[in-house]
Amino acid sequence: MDSPTENTSLHWLQNVEKRIIKVLELASGVMNELASPAGPRKEFINNHCREFMQLIKDIQVTLRDEIKSAL
User: What pTM does this model have?
Assistant: First the structure.
């Protein structure tokens, strides 16, 4: 049976994984928009880039905090 610590670690890793997948989806959306034959929509790109940067920052903070708590 898994210990509570293992369950917490697994849950934490799953949350980080979901955020990383979202980051990749945002990057893909921006690339698709830039490649659009009609030309990129500025507001779409701005929103996706803003969300991308916020998620990257959140992931960095989460990873830093988890590493500190593991030491």
Answer: 0.80
